[in-house]
Amino acid sequence: MPPTSTSADDKQAGQDANQDTGQDIDELRTEIDWLDGELLRLVKRRIEVSQRIGAARMAAGGTRIVVNREMDVLARYRELGPEGRKLAMALLALGRGPLGR
Ligand SMILES: O=C(O)C(=O)C[C@]1(C(=O)O)C=C[C@@H](O)C=C1
Questions:
Q1: Can you tell me which residues the record assigns to a coiled coil (predicted)?
Q2: ipTM over 0.95
Q3: How far is the CA of 93 from the centre of ligand 1 (A)?
């Protein structure tokens, strides 16, 4: 139920600090657990796809690393700041596998 006489900021702060009940927290944790499962599934799929591209490229005499494609991936996560960069680097490293590290 939204408060009627607070500013948008107060409203947000109230929701963050006071309005998440124990039940809300349980539901939010359930959502976090589901999201982590989905993220793990997607990361595993990304690894498979990345490794397939790498194997095909190397079988055709290409390189394991394609710098401009890696720059595109880093740019995609830039909105998340320094931790987004780390995340993108981790995704790239996972796709490259041990030989690319
Ligand atoms: O896009 C490619 O060509 C890939 O090989 C995929 C990928 C990636 O995981 O995003 C992996 C290695 C390359 O250096 C660049 C990008």
A1: none
A2: yes
A3: 10
